[in-house]
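Comment thread on ticket #2218

A.B. wrote:
> Attaching the input chain for the structure job we discussed in standup.
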Amino acid sequence: MQSNQFNQQQVRDFERLDFLARQIVEGFITGLHKSPYHGFSVEFAEHRLYNTGESTRHIDWKLFARTDKLFVKRYEEETNLRCQLVIDTSGSMHFPTNKSNQITDLNKLGFSVFAAASIVNMLRRQRDASGLTLFNEKIEFHSKASNTLKHQMLIYAELSKVLSQANQIKNVTKTQLVDTLHQVSERLHKRSLVVLFSDMINGSLEEQEKVFSALQHLKYNKHEVLLFHVADQKLEYGFEFENRPYKFVDMETGEKLRLNPVDLREMYKEQAMKRFSELKLRCHQYKIDLIEVDVNHGFNDLLMAYLVKRQKMY
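C.D. wrote:
> Ran it. Output below, let me know if you need it in another format.
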């Protein structure tokens, strides 16, 4: 059970994360207006003719000046989207470990938090409902989708907690993606957009098969799925470490391995790409939108992918 009361720290967390998310989104919107994608709306769904007698609150006066006709902004409360943000908080998401919580210097978990907060901001602009699920070895937090300000404050408060711990690995936690996806699929009773942030590090190939089955469960229950595959491309796929011995530690099992990355770089890159190609193929087969996200490249491509997906759904 979650308390309906918010202390001063939670309010401050909400204000800080809301401010930073708004900066990200407004920077994205500014670029959008200068790009070929200017047709996308992140404020409202569409216009409709004004009906005599109704409130004039949402009349688009700028459009009236151009057309001499009264149009109302038809907000998304009339065509509401429910979006469930699902974030993997397991040990591997804390990589790289030498990062801060500044927007320009984030590990995978910190990046996912800011990305999720930005999508919540966009959902609020479009009067859509947002929910949040946080998981590692089990579901740590789950809220149903809502578009009230109080609920958004709750989401930002939970995201702020995760962000404050993004660079602290107190306990080794594994990824239990399979059970989480099955539970989320059953808990969402209405058609929703499920936005998943994960590095998809889930152990053996057999375990990977179970993940695909769980993703199918979401689709079977009529949910749309947008999977953001979060990674540090330079280190995790390019294996671009210096030519010297390293001690690598598995952040989900604690297993240690000493080696010189140069000795295994080509073989590692081949195996990493093979694994990702399989994920990409299976997502294509199940009609799941898979987006590669590099924590070093900012949020614009990610927000555009979300906006394109929303446009297709509504």
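A.B. wrote:
> Thanks. Noting for the ticket: The two ends are 33 Å apart (CA to CA).
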